[in-house]
Amino acid sequence: MRKTASSWLLAAGLLSAAAPSAHAEPGVTLYGIVSSAVRYTSNLDGHHNDQAALVSGGLVGSRFGLKGDEDLGGGNRALFQFEAGIGSDDGRASYNALFGRQAFVGLSGAWGSLTVGRQYNALNNIGWAFDPLAQGWGNFWSDPLYIGGDIFFQDYRIDNSVVYKRAIGPLTVQLDYGVGEQRGSLARGTTLGGGVMYQQGALALGAAYDQRKSDDGGNTVRNYSVGGSYAFGKATAYLGHMGRRESAGDARFNIAFAGLGYQLTPALHLSGAYYRYWQGGNVTTQFQDVPALLGSGNADSIAVVADYALSRRTSVYVEADAVHARGGAVGRETEYWAGTPAAGVDSSTRVGVMLGMRHQF
């Protein structure tokens, strides 16, 4: 059950071939995950107000999807995938779309694969591959990578995109481009990125870059991720760094992390990690009608996860985390989780615990 960085493709929504599945027809697979958790969070808003909630996702976003392929001969195949995000707490569709997680069609062969549609960028695939607490399943509800807001992945998915992937020995390469579709400009609204993953034996290394130009051309957001992992015995060590730069206002964000996963028993996997976040430049709030200047700040976080497999398809898990934010990071932290930045608070500590269940089909 030990999960290493080779699961970065899984984070892109491609479930393991070993996973149980129901076949709607030859060449088409119906699959999904349902995951929910009960979470308690202290000091959610920086003003000592706590919260208890049933959260959808928990350790992984709930979803269902269809994927399939067709043999075209000569080693080439046609392929497609549609994947919908579902709130397992209220049944609503996620991302304001029926198939908001993925929707693409393309071709593959010995030359690689070329797909078009709504797809994960390389930054998402490689960034999550080295997060110690998210191995094999992608993000989870309270991941410390969200300390400054959900900002390090360029929205994860690219609409109107063209993605090329190819595996060459121990290297996997991805290039992605999103068409801006803005009248009168081929640059405004576009995304451009790529990444490379190296895996040989116990060692995995990866790096990715992605940039997005705003629809009006006034801002370019640049994100990057580097990381590595090394497996030894029943343990895997992880190390990573992610950064974000915004040309308008010169806002800068960084997060570095290190952690360890350990397969204590065939059913029980343990993981823990430390995260250091810092921001600088003209950092403002994200979601207020009139952005407020927050400025520089930093935060530290620790988190642990225990995941116990009841069967090949069903697991239960418990997670705990603590975040201590200072300066302008308090505003980013509290605005993301509570909706409003804490005013007049120089430092804030948030503690959370989560107990949940995950079922895969």
UniProtKB/TrEMBL annotation:
Query: Which GO terms of the cellular component aspect does the record hold?
Result: cell outer membrane; pore complex
- State whether keyword Membrane applies: yes
- Give the signal sequence positions: 1-24
Q: How does it sit in the membrane?
A: Multi-pass membrane protein
Q: What is its main location?
A: membrane
Name the domain of life. Bacteria
Q: Where is the Porin domain?
A: 11-326
* InterPro entries, sorted: Gram-neg_bact_OMP, Gram_neg_porin_domain, Porin_dom_sf, Porin_Gram-ve, Porin_Neis
The UniProt record lists the keyword Nucleus: no
Q: Which UniProt keywords apply?
A: Cell outer membrane, Ion transport, Membrane, Porin, Signal, Transmembrane, Transmembrane beta strand, Transport
Subcellular location(s): the record lists: Cell outer membrane
| One biological process term in Gene Ontology | monoatomic ion transmembrane transport
Under Gene Ontology molecular function, one entry of this record is: porin activity
Quaternary organization: Homotrimer.
- Which named protein is this? Porin
